[in-house]
Amino acid sequence: MNTGTIKVLLVEDDEAMRREFESMVASHPDLSLCGSAANLAEARLLLAQKTPDVALVDLGLPDGDGVELIAWLQQQRPHTTVLVATIFGDEAHVVRAIEAGARGYLLKDTAIDEFARGIKLLQQGGAPLSPQIARHLLKRFSPSEKISPRSEIDSLTAREIDILRHISQGYSVSETAKNMNISTHTVATHIKNIYSKLAVHNRVAAIIQARIQGFI
């Protein structure tokens, strides 16, 4: 897991929003600005010279679709992870961006500090998603798994919630066990119980369920 300064590339055509993102990066001790672009052409010029850790990408750009850049990064800069920042919260935009390679998707009405948290979460192996976006993905990619009622979420123990937070941040079973000072067998057992309580069958669906309900 990367513990150094995270190099961030911003691709945002709205000047006020871009300045706000620049200020966010500049003021955060764990982030550094790798470049700031107002369109696809500027982004490509910057990427010819620099390799960011994270690219914060808007979808509606004046000279093209941000999804084009996401797909290019997936192929040419696989070590650069992409966090989408957009006003588009419909399923079509979400699915296209995720299928192109985006690892996170936050709507622009998200608090600015949540974008900084999302960038760090990406570097830790997590997937920052606005709740509305998580619902789209759960419906699209886990059609047989329904959103659990609040009563089922509330049945999670404090330890199970702690384990959920660990795995949502990209920690492995062994890393989670070490951090919590318990055995890997105990962690694995708790994960099975979490899946059962949330009526899901994989880590992504469990994380989405917990994020929808506000636990992580």
UniProtKB/TrEMBL annotation:
The keyword Transcription appears for this protein: yes
Keywords, in A-Z order: DNA-binding, Phosphoprotein, Transcription, Transcription regulation, Two-component regulatory system
Superkingdom assignment: Bacteria
Pfam families: GerE, Response_reg
All copies of domain Response regulatory, residue ranges: 7-123
Residue numbers bearing the 4-aspartylphosphate modification: D58
Gene Ontology MF term list: DNA binding
Location of the HTH luxR-type domain: 149-214
UniProt record, GO biological process: phosphorelay signal transduction system; regulation of DNA-templated transcription
InterPro entries in the cross-refs: CheY-like_superfamily (IPR011006), NreC/VraR/RcsB-like_REC (IPR058245), Sig_transdc_resp-reg_C-effctor (IPR016032), Sig_transdc_resp-reg_receiver (IPR001789), Tscrpt_reg_LuxR_C (IPR000792), WalR-like (IPR039420)
SUPFAM superfamilies found in the cross-reference section: C-terminal effector domain of the bipartite response regulators, CheY-like
Protein name: LuxR family two component transcriptional regulator
